[in-house]
TrEMBL record, chain B:
One of its GO terms (molecular function) is protoheme IX farnesyltransferase activity. The chain crosses the membrane at residues 231-252, 258-277, 284-303, 379-399, 411-428. GO terms for cellular component: mitochondrial membrane. Its EC number is 2.5.1.-. PANTHER family: PROTOHEME IX FARNESYLTRANSFERASE, MITOCHONDRIAL (PTHR43448). One of its GO terms (biological process) is cytochrome complex assembly. Its main location: mitochondrion. Keywords: Heme biosynthesis, Membrane, Mitochondrion, Transferase, Transit peptide, Transmembrane, Transmembrane helix. This is Protoheme IX farnesyltransferase, mitochondrial.
Length: 192, 443
């Protein structure tokens, strides 16, 4: 079982996981800072020093997307760097879009509920003190309106998302192939 | 000869549904007709409970049952969802919003806020620090290393390929194969099932690959492997290719080219038409219904090698079934669809949604009646299928009239047991020994 795990670990780069770096050596300065962080347990965004993988966090409160902390290997190649930057940028872009989308949705939903309750002559709170809500059928008008209002926004987002997703996957493939290629010719490197 | 392919095919069909049903069905075939009906009623009741619970637990969770799902769902790694709701994660917010693009020239921390955060926290008082540390330790635990463990891989791939849905798709293909006329060829049957299963795995994986940010934002889909970072997009695409190529090859060269072509077309239809169309137009539901209708047609063409009227009838039954099934399901997901930007009838055209669901419930009645006319089943079939067809039509009518959550859920759960039962009844009433020249059934 243990042998299998080791085999699995070795196979990781060839599986095409872009995050599995060949070397786990962190830069000395960063390592020291991360070590301090780990010791004082002050930040959850600094992964353990021995880790050479990316780390994924819990879903963001607003965007529901899980942030990824990208690992920067010491011997990062140009292709790997390009991939990481693209992923980082896409993550920020996605985060911005969905956080904005969800916050706007919640805000407009609240406004809709308030206006409907007012129109019905009801207060914002029920007798028991709970926040008054409308049932699903009453909310249906709002859902329809919200969807149609944001249709163009979604069209642009969809197009961009598909492009980015393909690009990231393509670069991941390139990085994986590069790694496999480098692994296959270390002898050539040492002899020359 | 007449009985063995029937019992064998029925067994294989229900194998995907549940072992208990399989056993009961075998008994039923051997028992007298009176006991037969009694056992079927029991089987359907048992199966309702089993499937009801399974689906409720795993796949079709509405917001009402969110807490139930989080408690029951088996987890290899704790996701700690209750924590998410309660934690303020204000620092998380700050961290994420202030993220700056990494400057490759520096070898410092990838994020400047992290640095300042460290300095601030180091200089903070112990009392303040301990409170923060308490919260952060909780948050820290929720960060997972994105390392693919070989042990986890089968589970991850099963979820990626929506293995339960794939199993249902393969069982509809098996039904199509079993209902087709001619002798039952076991090797062909197995090749068809495996090929269709692989094609379905591939299509489902690509669907998840395309929909990561959308899945993250919907309660039903937020625990998928790509969303949770358990697998990379590259590996997903590789896995899909490794399923699609052997799957379609198996169907084309192991069965027949027509079945292979249908399989390939269905993968294309699902991944390149239905998936993007979901965000563009309500026509996606009709496309999706065709996607669901093709597997039994594939089963039929695998057995007979041609697209007969029977193939279209089976396809038609599956096509019509999709509407009460999906429209009822989508009724409870309107908020998520609206927020996520999905164009579904339940959001944009609610009256049409209910009308179409009812219309297709009635179509199921008509198609059941057409089955004996096309020589697929005997005339017993529409008669014994009448109660369940009337029941689903009644629920469809209630959904049409009441348009509320309760009626939509009733219709949805009915659709879950209605289809397998209908197919089972078709199998038991299969028209046997049809003389191809005269078209007259042999007694």
């Amino acid at each position: 079982m243990a042998a299998w795990r080791v085999l699995g670990k070795r196979r990781l780069p060839t599986l095409g996981r872009a995050f599995a770096a060949r070397s786990c050596r962190l830069a000395p300065e960063r390592g020291a800072e991360c070590g301090e962080a780990a010791r004082s347990r002050v930040s959850r965004f600094c992964p353990p020093r021995t880790s050479c993988h990316d780390w994924i966090g819990p879903p963001d409160k607003h965007s529901n997307l899980r942030p990824v902390h990208f690992h920067v290997p010491e011997d990062e190649s140009a292709a790997e760097q390009k991939l990481r930057e693209l992923r980082q940028e896409t993550q920020e872009w996605n985060q911005q879009f969905w956080a904005n989308q969800n916050v706007t949705f919640r805000k407009e939903k609240e406004e809709f509920i308030h206006s409907r309750l007012k129109a019905k002559g009801l207060g914002l709170r029920t007798e028991s003190g709970q926040k008054a809500t409308l049932n699903a059928e009453e909310m249906a008008d709002f859902y329809k309106e919200f969807l149609s209002k944001n249709f163009q926004k979604h069209m642009h987002y969809n197009r961009d998302w598909y492009k980015r997703n393909f690009a990231i996957t393509f670069f991941m493939g390139r990085v994986a192939l590069e790694r496999v290629w480098n692994k296959l010719r270390p002898k050539q490197k040492t002899s020359s | 000869m007449a009985t063995s392919p029937h019992t064998l095919s029925s067994r294989l069909l229900t194998g995907g549904v549940g072992g208990c049903v399989w056993y009961l069905e075998r008994r039923a075939v051997q028992a007298s007709p009176h006991k037969f009906m009694h056992l079927f009623r029991n089987a359907s009741k048992q199966w309702v409970t089993f499937q009801h619970f399974t689906f409720l637990k795993r796949m079709y969770v509405t917001q009402l049952n969110r807490s139930l799902r989080q408690q029951i769902k088996p987890k290899a790694e704790p996701v700690a969802s209750p924590f998410l709701e309660k934690s303020s994660s204000s620092q998380a917010k700050a961290e994420v919003y202030e993220m700056k693009p990494f400057a490759p020239s520096t070898l410092s921390l990838p994020r400047k806020p992290n640095e300042t955060e460290l300095i601030e926290l180091e200089s903070a008082s112990i009392i303040e620090g301990s409170v923060d540390v308490g919260k952060e330790t909780k948050d820290e635990k929720q960060w997972k290393e994105m390392k693919l463990r070989v042990d986890d891989l089968p589970g991850i791939l099963a979820r990626l390929s929506k293995i339960k849905l794939t199993a249902l798709v393969v069982s509809t293909t098996s039904a199509g194969f079993a209902l087709a006329p001619g002798p039952f060829d076991l090797s062909c049957f197995l090749l068809t099932s495996v090929g269709t299963g692989l094609a379905s795995c591939a299509a489902n994986s690509i669907n998840q690959f395309f929909e990561v940010p959308f899945d993250s934002n919907m309660n039903r889909t937020k625990n998928r492997p790509l969303v949770r970072g358990q697998i990379s997009p590259l590996l997903t695409v590789t896995f899909a290719a490794c399923c699609a190529v052997p799957g379609v090859a198996l169907l084309t060269w192991g069965v027949n080219p027509l079945t292979g072509a249908l399989g390939l077309f269905n993968i294309f239809l699902y991944t390149c038409c239905y998936t993007p169309l979901k965000r563009v137009s309500i026509a996606n539901t009709w496309v999706g219904a065709v996607v669901g209708a093709i597997p039994p047609v594939m089963g039929w063409t695998a057995a007979t090698g041609s697209l007969d009227a029977g193939a279209f009838l089976l396809g038609g039954i599956l096509y019509s079934w999709q509407f009460p099934h999906f429209n009822a399901l989508s009724w409870g997901l309107r908020e998520d669809y609206s927020r996520g930007g999905y164009c579904m009838m339940s959001v944009t055209h609610p009256a049409l949604c209910r009308r179409v669901a009812l219309r297709h419930c009635l179509a199921l009645l008509a198609l059941s009646a057409a089955a004996p006319a096309l020589g697929v089943t005997t005339w017993t079939f529409p008669v014994i299928a009448l109660p369940i067809n009337l029941y689903i039509s009644y629920l469809g009518f209630r959904f049409y009239r009441d348009a509320d959550r309760k009626s939509s859920r009733k219709l949805f759960f009915c659709s879950l047991w209605h289809l397998p039962l209908l197919l089972l009844l078709m199998l038991t009433c299969k028209q046997r020994g049809v003389d191809r020249d005269s078209g007259e059934p042999q007694s």
